[in-house]
């Protein structure tokens, strides 16, 4: 009888432990209707969100900002429920990430453009480039292509095929025999002086106190399709709290702040979930 009771207690304990373990390993429960945990890049994304935290608080929504220094974990954490939204990427990057990882994420709306720019610590002009010079570019697919398109616009290379999916292998003309080094975008501002020129994302340039307008040799214009967006889980895109978040981030307050603070290095670009511009 005692053995049977011990067996029953043991099985019950195992069941409890299994349940606890499964709960710990499963998805985190999402936040309530009155709170948003949003993952962001430090600059300018964190600054932009913090600008509207009090406004959303007045609407009954508490916003918690969680900063990330990479382009991978914010989407994984959003998919797993560790975040309710994120703000660090553009739509082409999100689309590629979703396709590769089979995640159910979607665009809530667009906020701004961070023009990609070409920098150098030794050259005053792209005309000073010499045969065989090294060029550092981002290694993630979308920003890699974006960098190559900018270099093509400057007449340094010619790409074949579909430009939107171009890689170094698609370079069909390279008059200066430029040597390309692809590396993680976040690391480029720390080493770009080792190459003749480097293509740096606007947010990473700003974080390292590099001015995309004053310090660059060339920069994307305002027609860039790479608008930085808010992403959420697809089944929550219509949630009221996210609509209020989007409204706050697409306000005149944010627009004026971007124009006054960044003077062209971060450009307001309000778009809806389909990428259509909002006046």
Structural write-up:
With 279 residues, the chain is α/β, with parallel strands linked by helices. The chain has two domains: 35-114 and 224-271, Periplasmic binding protein-like II (D-Maltodextrin-Binding Protein, domain 2); 117-219, D-Maltodextrin-Binding Protein, domain 2 (3-Layer(aba) Sandwich), CATH 3.40.190.10. The chain is built from ten helices and 13 strands. It has helices at residues 2-25, 42-51, 53-58, 73-79, 91-101, 141-153, 188-191, 202-207, 240-249, 252-262; strands spanning 35-40, 62-67, 85-90, 105-113, 117-119, 134-138, 158-159, 171-173, 179-183, 197-200, 218-219, 227-233, 267-271. A six-stranded mixed beta sheet has the order 2-1-3-12-4-13, with helices on both faces. The protein is globular, with a radius of gyration of 23 Å. The protein starts with a helix and ends in an 8-residue tail after the last strand. The model is unreliable at 7-27 (pLDDT under 50).
């Amino acid at each position: 009888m005692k053995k049977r009771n011990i067996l029953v207690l043991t099985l019950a304990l195992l069941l409890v432990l299994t349940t606890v373990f499964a709960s710990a390993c499963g998805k985190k429960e999402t936040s309530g209707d009155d709170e948003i945990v949003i993952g962001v890049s430090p600059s300018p994304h964190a600054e932009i969100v913090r600008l509207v935290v009090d406004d959303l608080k007045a609407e009954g929504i508490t916003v918690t900002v969680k900063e990330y220094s990479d382009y991978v974990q914010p989407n994984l954490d959003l998919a797993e429920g560790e975040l309710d939204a994120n703000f660090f990427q553009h739509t082409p990057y999100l689309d590629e990430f979703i396709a590769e990882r089979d995640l159910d994420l979607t665009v809530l709306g667009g906020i701004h453009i961070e023009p990609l720019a070409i920098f150098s610590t030794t050259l005053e002009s792209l005309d000073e480039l010499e045969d065989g010079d090294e060029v550092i570019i981002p290694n993630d697919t979308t920003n890699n292509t974006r960098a190559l398109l900018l270099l093509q616009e400057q007449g340094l290379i010619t790409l074949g095929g579909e430009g939107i999916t171009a890689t170094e292998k698609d370079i069909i003309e390279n008059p200066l025999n430029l040597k390309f080094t692809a590396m993680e975008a976040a690391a480029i501002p720390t080493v770009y002086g080792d190459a003749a020129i480097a293509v740096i994302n606007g947010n990473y340039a700003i974080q390292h106190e590099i001015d995309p307008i004053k310090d660059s040799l060339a920069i994307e214009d305002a027609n860039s399709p790479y608008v930085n967006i808010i992403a959420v889980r697809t089944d929550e895109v219509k949630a009221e709290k996210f609509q209020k978040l989007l409204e706050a981030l697409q306000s005149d307050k944010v627009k004026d702040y971007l124009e006054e603070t960044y003077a062209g290095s971060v450009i307001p670009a309000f778009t809806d979930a389909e990428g259509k511009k909002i006046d």
